[in-house]
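Blackboard transcription, Thursday session:
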Amino acid sequence: MSELRDLYQEMILEHGKRPRNFRFPEGANLTANGHNPLCGDRLVLKVKYEQGRVVDIGFQGTGCAICMASASTMTETVMGRQREDVDALIDKFLAMTVRNEPGAVELLPPKLAVFSGVQEYPMRVKCATLAWHTLEAALAGQVTASSEAASTPGTQTQGG
Amino acid sequence: MTSQLWESHEALRQEFPALNQEIYGKPLVYLDSAATSLKPRCVIDAVRSVWESDCANIHRGVHTLSQRATKRYEAARESLRRFVGAKSSREVVFVRGATEGLNLIAATLGRTKLTPGDEVLVTGLEHHANIVPWQLICEATGAKLRVAEVSDDGSVTVGAVRAALTDRTKIVSVAHVSNALGTVLPVKEIAQVAHERGAWVVVDGAQAAPHLPVNVQDIDCDFYVLSGHKLYGPDGIGILYGREAVLSTLPPYQGGGDMILSVSFEQTLYNELPYRFEAGTPSIAGAVGLGAAVEFLASLGWDRITAREHELLAAGTAILEAIPGVRIIGQAPEKIGVLSFVVEGVHPHDLGTILDREGVAIRTGHHCAQPVIERFGLSATARASLGLYNTLGELEELGRAVRKAQELFGS
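(Written on the board underneath:)
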């Protein structure tokens, strides 16, 4: 079970069970829906974004522990941050999980670094990145994000 | 001869080479046969021998290899005819699988017989392959898609089908066995009430053919489709059975070689049944492998296969029901091959990953049958599905692994 613990670290299990910011912020002016057709995970992310800053952020939806925990820790991490910081976090998180860049994990706060375990589980990478793609979409003014959007050849998954 | 395999279940398991491996250091427990079944040695050998010794195109060459390949391909068709109880091998069309079979029927029967306002009736538990082709043809013809209700226990009654039939119903297309719940549908009775209303009856047998004897004449359906890869045979091959009186009235599905008698730029004459529906070079080795698979099943004997699988299903149900927090989805009285379930506090996708680490292969998600999963207020389930090689010990292993997942999640 030790390898499984690399994926399901205490932080992930805990946030998965009790996600933070599981609410829609008042005065939110950006919204995006995230969907992973493989497993049916769905998120609605709402952001109160003013003068280049994430003033408030929250989400609602259903999904696996990885997906819920990722959305939870993401909202905690980006809360109150300037756009440049948020963009940099998005990039580093995707560098760690999707692009598998060595060293990326060290550039992330511990709360996000716990997701480095998904690299070992190709089918689960999208669970960890769905919230981040949805945030990217919200900040870009798009309404929907799909876990399929950023899939790389060979990891393409199918809803069937 | 093969029936001797029952004397030792281990000997039967030895016929399936893929079982003989470890996953993360644990013996593979394969409980995903509804996605695809493992292949017995006789199927692997049949496919290999086509390529090793009889590798040629069929129905074309005068040379020896081509004649041998043609003979084996047509012998496989005859095996499949016997397997589904069709009257004539002219009624057995090789296709890529059940999905292609359903698309073929929708594109030929649907395109020529449906007019605006007509209705196509499916049930609420269909696989996407028995929904989307009908949606496409309804859109093209102006027909409407109607849905017969699924009961709370996951069954579809003849009454539910009768209630959804109207004077405009032209086609009734139903699963024989639900891939998501394991429900066995009363297809014979459904065919009867549908025929009384003058509708054509299509049965999707992808999940039924591996688990119970099929007889298309007894069901009295007009069409029946199945996939080889769920039937211990190769992927990329399956059959469409079509009642000759109906099939012979349909236009070709795809154009190409082998489906014609003669071609000129002025006029093309189509080939006779079943070749009219087999354009291009088919999966020859696939067909021969599928022929070997159904002969393997026939020699094992259906009585023993179904008895064993009912025993396994009952045992698996009892094992899962004994675990607090586990709920089985789909408890129809007539059920086979599938255990769909959810575990409180553990998302199916997490469960699938944890079980895999224990060597237990299951499917998680909506199983390409989103409407029925949503019918039960869910977005996903875990699905353990059975093959004739599974053992009681493997189901106990499933139970242990589920408890392990609950432990990890503290639920």
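Lecturer's comment: The mean pLDDT of chain A is 88.
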